[in-house]
Amino acid sequence: MPFPDLSPDVVAEYRSDARAPEDFDAFWSGTLAGARGDLGLTVTPVEDGPVFQVSDVSYRGFGGHEVKGWLIAPPGASSVVVKFIGYNGGRSFAHEHLFWPSTGRAVLVMDTRGQGSGWAPGATPDPVGSDPAHAGFMTRGILRREDYFYRRVFTDAVRAVEAAFTLYPRVAVAGGSQGGGISLAVAGLVPGLSAVMPDVPYLCDFWRGVTVATRDPYLEIARYLAVHRGAEEAVFRTLSYFDGVHFAARATAPALFSVGIMDTICPPSTVYGAYNAYAAPKQMARYTFNDHEGGGPFQEMRQKDWLAGVMPA
């Protein structure tokens, strides 16, 4: 397969020309202020085994809506990784999230509202409707920043981290693809994180993603615009409030990124757009001959070693 984006020898130097709206910070501070209040956090043990305790988690996210999750904790854990899920996946079953507990850390898995019917089941509905939208989630509420789907998701994610901080003194965030994009949003919105681990992150440098990617989900936006001629300005105005490039520029925690140079879903230039804007110490794990699967288990092992240096178990 040919390289689908910029050539490998130049893509690492790519810098996005996306610019944050002047009221980007005010929009997000207002959004989060409106969501704060009683977390309504419940942690209900469902399995107390000899190695890990598994708990069903519930808390109040955007709009006070209930968000579900799993908390899986080894005895004596003093740190937690908050894990965000890839596009249209849900929290699924607890035993699928044992990697971080196996390193001595707890993991808090956030169920993504409205998703969980593509490849892994979810349990959190999204009770908010939208204008006409293309199938999928990328265009739900896309004409207005206040209505956009990811405003709710990113707020849910911040609340998940706030819940994690009530349980453990040290918190890292991680995720792949959409989960990587959510982790970048949290990195730019929440101070005090110990580490950020975005793998092949989605939701970065939207204009380039929509015009370079050859597989969904970015192409949902292109198909929407092919029907809604004349909506381009409004669409990309909305997306400018949700771009991982802008959250990266506000991050304060050390980060370990990964990128697949043959990625046809999240073009590597979009990943480097966020990486090169990232304002805190950072490293990139590069997988030259991999598509969107990136490093897979190789990256997990790299994360384990890297996290040991910045957030001991």
From TrEMBL:
Protein's organism: Stagnihabitans tardus
GO biological process terms, semicolon-separated: polysaccharide metabolic process
Annotated catalytic residues: S177 (nucleophile), D263 (charge relay system), H292 (charge relay system)
Residue numbers binding substrate: Y87
Ranges where the Acetyl xylan esterase domain occurs: 1-308
InterPro entries the UniProt entry points to: AB_hydrolase_fold, AXE1_dom, CE7
Molecular-function annotations in GO: carboxylic ester hydrolase activity
Protein name as catalogued: Acetylxylan esterase
